[in-house]
Design a protein that fits this description.
Layout: E1 3-6, E2 34-38, E3 43-48, E4 77-80, E5 83-84, E6 87-92, E7 152-157, E8 159-160, E9 165-170, E10 207-212
Parallel strand pairs: 1-6, 4-7, 5-8, 6-9, 7-10
Antiparallel strand pairs: 2-3
Length: about 210
């Protein structure tokens, strides 16, 4: 049972993925320490302790993946079948939508700020570097491309012999696969997850007209 397929050319690649987020900014430095002098016993002491550096900034959110393109349409077609001696199926519909791009990775949390400098006489305890910033949120996945449009097919034949038939099999083109979200950025804590892309729509229908010609 021969089948004639009329559809749009499929895509060979998915839509581009989203780019990564940027690294967060470095945290502010801590305040410097200060020494004091005790004149009664001629000694220095810690007057103001240096403070730790501030937490780094959060990484930025990953870029959303690109939306898939609409499927390629099925081409308008005229078939000249002549005398039909067996069963023929004409399968027709648009091309599948393009798969969407994946979301980009979240940016890395920024480095913590430098510790405040020790007091000149080094009587205070040293301060620490600030903690790393929170990781950026993962980029969302792109929307899957809509299915391609159908078309009109005209099937001409001159004669249907015994056992000959012409039947149509019309389908609505599937949308492309939605893109997944990216990887959350590393940090303190790590970034949040994104969301997967949404599904596209099915393609439009087709028509097949079968007619006898001289």
């Amino acid at each position: 049972m021969p089948t004639i397929l009329i559809t749009g050319e499929p895509y060979s690649n998915a839509a581009p993925n989203g780019g990564p987020g940027s690294t967060g900014t470095k945290g502010a430095p801590g305040s410097p320490g200060q020494s004091g002098y005790n004149s009664s016993n001629c000694t220095y002491y810690c007057l103001v302790a240096p403070t730790n550096g501030s937490q780094g900034g959060q990484g930025t959110t990953g870029i959303t993946g690109s939306q898939g393109a609409k499927g390629r349409p099925a081409p308008p077609t005229t078939l000249n079948l002549g005398e039909v001696t067996g069963a023929i199926i004409i399968r027709v519909g648009g091309g599948r939508g393009q798969d969407a791009g994946k979301g980009g990775n979240g940016g890395t949390g920024g480095p913590g700020g430098d510790p405040g400098t020790i007091d000149p006489q080094r009587k205070c305890n040293s301060a620490g570097t600030g903690p790393q910033g929170r990781g950026g949120t993962a980029g969302n996945g792109g929307k899957g491309g809509d299915g391609g449009d159908g078309t009109t097919v005209i099937a001409n034949y001159t004669k249907l012999s015994s056992g000959g038939s012409i039947n149509s099999d019309i389908f609505l083109a599937d949308p492309g696969t939605p893109g997944g979200f990216g990887t959350p950025g590393s940090g303190n804590p790590n970034g949040s997850t994104g969301t997967n892309g949404t599904a596209g729509a099915k393609g439009s229908t087709s028509q097949v007209y079968v007619r006898q010609v001289p």
